[in-house]
Amino acid sequence: MKRTWILASAAAVLSASALLGGGHAWSAPEAATFDGDTVHSFVLFKIKHMGTSWTYGRFNDFTVSVGMNDAGTEVTSVAFDVKTDSVDTGQPKRDGHVKSPDFHNAKQFEDIKFASTAAKTLDADTTEVTGDLTLHGVTKPVTVKVVKVGAGKGMKGEALVGLETTFSLKRSDYGMKSMIGPVGDDVQITVAVEAAKK
User: Fold this and answer.
1) Domain residue spans in the chain?
2) Which CATH architecture has domain 28-197?
3) pLDDT reported for residue 185
4) Among 194, 150, 187, 174, which residue's Cα sits nearest to residue 44?
5) Which end of the chain lies in a sparser environment, N or C, as judged by fewer CB atoms within 10 Å?
6) What sign does the CA torsion over 12, 13, 14, 17 have?
7) Beta strands in 74-182 (DSSP E)
């Protein structure tokens, strides 16, 4: 008798949950993909030179994709692919050195890739994203905070969202150990994205 009462109570609770949730109590939120507009997006970095000043640079060839809920208010995933041969520090001779085996070895390691494995909403504008970063042939887990800068509509009425993250890594952790001292080990990276809903 007691078991029958427990089963009946459980069934009632499940039925009530389904009714209160409009029949979608167990459904995952709808998802949408937002593709980065690389004309209005940037992958930037800075690194110390001679322990004295910052040297700044960017990568000009990359793709970014962001998974969000259908309303475009919550980040659920992030992926990017940066071509190392596209590094641009404003000095062609230095760019060639950065592409060389002393640093990125762009001919052997053509891509810097990130693929998220988890996303946790911290507040209305901030998501903690964990994923795997591959650099110089080495893959390591990293956790970054992605901040929503704004949202709006594009020229064709498409939904737009602006996102940004800044994080640091040690290049030696990825096997890039050449010239540490004259060139810093710590690299600060900023990824700023304007993305449109597909």
Assistant:
1) 28-197
2) Beta Barrel (2.40)
3) 96
4) 187
5) N
6) positive
7) 75-83, 87-88, 111-123, 126-135, 138-153, 159-170
For residue 27, give the DSSP letter. Answer: P
The pTM of the whole model exceeds 0.85: no
Quote the tokens at residue 197: 């809903």
Q: Which helix (H) or strand (E) holds 59?
A: strand 53-59
Burial degree of 133 (CB within 10 A; 0-12, 13-18, 19+): buried
The pLDDT, as a whole number, for residue 29 is: 53
Q: Which two tokens stand for residue 134?
A: 């591959």
Helix (H) or strand (E) holding 13: helix 2-20
Position 24 scores a pLDDT of 33
Interior/surface letters 98-108, b for 16+ CB within 10 angstroms, e for the rest = bbeeebbbbee
Query: What residue has token string 């110390």?
Result: 48
Q: How far apart are CA 139 and CA 29, in angstroms?
A: 30
The span from the CA of 64 to the CA of 83, in Å, is 12
Write out the two tokens for 20.
Answer: 């209160």
**Structure-token pair, residue 5:** 């009462």
Report mean pLDDT in 10-residue bins for the chain, 198 residues. Answer: 36 33 39 90 96 96 92 90 97 96 95 96 94 96 96 90 96 94 96 93
Dig out the tokens for 183 from the structure: 């060139």
